[in-house]
Design goal:
Length: about 300
């Protein structure tokens, strides 16, 4: 029996999508503006197909325009870049997302750098990373935004909070640390060379794990009462010929010590698409000079 409060990312994401839907309705009625998201999918990767289908479905449910551009696994880099450039030029498209991973013949960095930064709703473009790092308004990667929204919902004002982020990837660890700095947390970023990781983690009032190692963060790494946000999605052998999803945190032991904790699945995962829709609305407002509604 866990003692920590469960942070229900699924419910939070659902209510966020409702608020986004209301914002979209207002933009349509007051400004004649329908935010639109275009997704480019290259190849047949089954997991990517599921993600893209879910993104399209949730975009339409929020009242927005949704386009899917499917390209064969054999598409050349030039063909993908040409598709991205066409979307950059299309005024009805406010957000562009190229589903990763891309086939080997295509340089993902080149593709991301070709997306108009003001339509880069994944927040991966170097211009948006730079804007985030220098505290300027930017489109920020969706999963990090989701983590911070959940942490704020649980802890309220994060000012002065001792935060530890385990992982320093460009898509999760670094941007989540930058967002926490903007919230005036005291931020420590850990990685594979960090000395005495458990000891550093035990300092955290807010512990964010984005490592990609199943159940690595144990209960005795967690400060009693801390808020634990588990970004990890790892599929492991369940022992009965089946597999199951676990996070980067050993939920059973951590939930006995933490004050609040996200489950996997149902924690951070559902926030990612909701934040993608939020970014698309914000991008649509910014390009039209409209102040973005509260969502
Ligand atoms: P990466 O593999 O890009 O980065 C992992 C980070 O963890 C690196 O900085 C690495 O350090 C660090 N690390 C690895 N092993 C250790 C260790 N033993 N001790 C300390 N640090 C370590 O992963 P991502 O950031 O892309 O993803 C992290 C997790 O989040 C994955 O499980 C992924 O599936 C999940 N994820 C979930 C999303 C969602 O919910 N929608 C979206 C994106 C990711 P170093 O830099 O030194 O190598």
């Amino acid at each position: 029996m866990s003692e920590a409060t469960l942070i229900d990312g699924k419910a939070f994401a659902q209510s966020l999508r409702q608020r986004i839907g209301a914002a979209v309705a207002t933009l349509k009625s007051d400004h004649g503006l329908t935010p639109g998201l275009a997704v480019v999918l290259v190849g047949e990767d089954p997991a990517s197909q599921v993600y893209v289908r879910n993104k399209g479905k949730q975009t339409l449910e929020a009242g927005m325009n949704s386009w899917e551009h499917r390209m064969p696994a054999t598409a050349s880099e030039d063909e993908v870049l040409a598709q991205v450039r066409a979307l950059n030029e299309d005024p009805a498209v406010h957000g562009i997302l190229v589903q990763l991973p891309l086939p080997d013949q295509i340089d993902a960095n080149k593709v991301i750098d070709t997306i108009d930064p003001d339509k880069d709703v994944d927040g991966f473009h170097v211009i948006n990373s730079g804007r985030l790092a220098t505290g300027q308004p930017s489109l920020v990667a969706c999963t990090p935004v989701g983590c911070v929204l959940l942490a704020k919902d649980m802890l309220g004002d994060l000012s002065g909070v001792e935060a530890v982020v385990v992982g320093r990837s460009n898509i999760v660890g670094k941007p989540v640390a930058q967002l926490l700095l903007q919230e005036n947390c005291t931020v420590t970023i850990c990685h594979s060379r960090t000395k005495d990781l458990p000891e550093v983690c035990r300092r955290a009032d807010l512990l964010i794990a984005a490592v990609g190692r199943p159940e690595m963060v144990k209960g005795d790494w967690v400060k009693p009462g801390a808020c634990v946000i588990d970004v990890g999605i790892n599929r492991i052998d369940a022992g009965d010929g089946k597999t199951r999803l676990v996070g980067d945190v050993d939920f059973a032991s951590a939930a006995k010590v933490a004050g609040s904790i996200t489950p996997v699945p149902g924690g951070v995962g559902p926030m990612t698409i909701a934040c993608l829709l939020r970014n698309t609305v914000q991008a649509a407002c910014a390009v039209n000079g409209i102040s973005s509604p509260e969502m």
